[in-house]
Design a protein that fits this description.
The complex is a heterodimer of chains A (216) and B (243).
Chain A (H helix, E strand, L loop, with lengths): L1 H29 L7 E2 L18 E7 L6 E6 L4 E3 L2 E10 L5 E11 L2 H6 L8 H6 L1 E11 L4 E4 L6 E2 L4 H9 L15 E4 L4 H11 L8
Antiparallel strand pairs in A: 2-3, 2-10, 3-5, 4-5, 5-6, 6-7, 7-8, 7-9
Chain B lengths: L7 E2 L8 E2 L10 H11 L11 H6 L9 H7 L5 E11 L8 E4 L4 E6 L2 H10 L20 E4 L5 E7 L2 E29 L5 E29 L5 E7 L7
The chains are: A alpha+beta (216), B mainly beta (243).
């Protein structure tokens, strides 16, 4: 009897000891000596838009097509009057789903008198005569293929008539010194980002597209 | 033997809670330290006789920040730069090291113009993050910027070949316990004849908890060689010294 009881007592003792050690380890693990660091989420990455005017202030202002094949147009909303009656704007054309082309960047100039610039603040339905009188020229442009190849066009083109397309909407924004502060809603401008490089705007736009409401 | 009745009295003298500085310098003891130093024949080195490095660190940066140069370096190119930013939290005996990834944080890529080269040269020995107060305010205006994904991955596109400084700050929170000085207590021992036989004054503390937010700087010097399509930095943490 004794010979049989001794191993069982030892066995019980070992079990108690093992259980005690496991409990002590678990208790130690549950209460680490140092506080654990917790990550701070950077948020939705779109903080309140306060534009630093030393960098481009990008706004989406036009789109064509339907998701997921939309083509979006972003403009640098800063007012740039380069000479008398000449205004300059930079526009990025961003395909939502890049096909052969990744994106385009255009620097264009508009030629308009002070009266035409003033009239451009009115309802768009009344601007047919104004648009017909305004001239446009491309100063420089580049496009990037999906594979990353860059194609530049640095030629300055002659003045032409203003097409009734995104160029007309860009004209209204470019000639209005208070487009960003006062008439962003009237011009359907959706604030996007304050970024130096157009390619960063393209990447950010594609990232936040699910959050962007439809652009007219 | 006459019996002596003893009362003990405790009171909080100053009930205003005040944070106790972790390493408060006792100003009353300074003259004692100074006297000791003089007695031992020790004195602080005179200005101008210390190591040359210390003198250089006090000189402000004289290199001008050239806006045109910075803009030219940021022109569009054809190279992509990728990586994954994280910080390593040291574990304990029971807990392994933990990786915290920079989630939705802005990553800056600054082109190495002449100003930034001089700045890096000045501060790289002691950690670049320590020199951020002397960065020109316009430096960040001429930078590529992207946002990390949930796992700290980032991708810059359209870069020209050249040298860059990559910088991001991973923010994290940590709980801390600290002592709050709530006043002091005095223990007075009286005899039955009203004569004070002992008086001891001690501070009273209570433990409080707080959560603080910290920033972990991740800084790297990056070189992009001409003709490279993609440069992958892999996982990066700490500054350029890996600290």
């Amino acid at each position: 009897m004794m010979g049989a009881a001794l191993p069982s007592r030892l066995d019980r003792l070992v079990r108690v000891l093992v259980a005690g050690v496991i409990a002590a380890v678990l208790a130690g693990a549950a209460q680490p000596a140092r506080a654990q660091a917790k990550l701070v989420d950077g948020g939705n990455a779109l903080p309140r838009f306060t534009c630093n005017l030393k960098m481009p202030c990008w706004y989406l202002f036009y789109q064509r097509g339907a998701a997921p094949k939309r083509v979006l147009y972003a403009i640098d909303g800063r007012h740039a009057k380069v000479s008398k009656d000449v205004y300059q704007a930079t526009v990025i054309v961003i395909p939502e789903t890049p096909d052969a082309m990744d994106y385009w960047v255009f620097t264009v100039q508009f030629q308009a008198t002070a009266e035409q610039a003033q009239a451009a603040q009115g309802p768009i339905a009344t601007l047919e005569k104004t648009f017909a009188a305004v001239k446009l020229r491309q100063m420089k442009a580049y496009r990037v293929q999906t594979g990353g190849t860059l194609e530049s066009d640095t030629k300055e083109y002659p003045w032409t008539a203003l097409p009734k397309d995104w160029q007309a909407l860009a004209f209204r924004i470019a000639v209005d010194p208070e487009a960003m502060e006062e008439r962003a809603e009237q011009y359907d401008m959706i604030s996007l980002a304050n970024l130096y490089r157009p390619v960063d705007v393209v990447d950010l736009t594609r990232r936040v597209l699910p959050l962007v409401k439809e652009v007219r | 033997m006459a019996s002596v009745a003893v009362w003990r009295r405790q009171r909080v003298l100053n009930s205003k809670a005040a944070l106790t500085p972790p390493e408060e310098l006792n100003m009353n003891r300074l003259p004692v330290f100074a006297a000791l130093l003089v007695a031992l024949g020790l004195s602080a080195p005179a200005w101008g006789q210390g190591p040359a490095r210390n003198i250089e660190e006090k000189q402000p940066l004289r290199t001008r920040f050239d806006v045109a140069e910075a803009a030219q370096l940021m022109e569009v190119g054809e190279t992509a730069l990728t990586g994954q930013a994280f910080m390593l939290e040291k574990g304990s005996l029971l807990r392994a090291d933990t990786k915290l990834y920079a989630k939705n944080e802005v990553v800056y890529l600054l082109p190495m113009n002449n100003f930034l080269k001089a700045w890096v040269e000045k501060y790289r020995g002691n950690g670049l993050a320590n020199g951020r107060f002397e960065l020109h305010p316009e430096v960040g205006n001429y930078a590529a910027r992207v946002i990390t994904d949930d796992e700290g991955r980032f991708r810059f596109r359209g870069l020209k070949s050249g040298e860059y400084l990559l910088w991001t700050v991973l923010r994290y929170e940590k709980d801390h316990e600290y002592l709050v000085n709530t006043g002091s207590s005095q223990t007075v021992t009286w005899s039955s004849y009203g004569i004070v036989t002992a008086a001891v004054r001690e501070p009273v503390f209570r433990t409080a908890k707080a959560t603080h937010t910290y920033g972990h700087n991740i800084i790297r010097l990056v070189t992009i060689a001409a003709g490279q399509a993609v440069v992958d930095l892999g996982g990066i943490h700490g500054d350029e010294r890996g600290q």
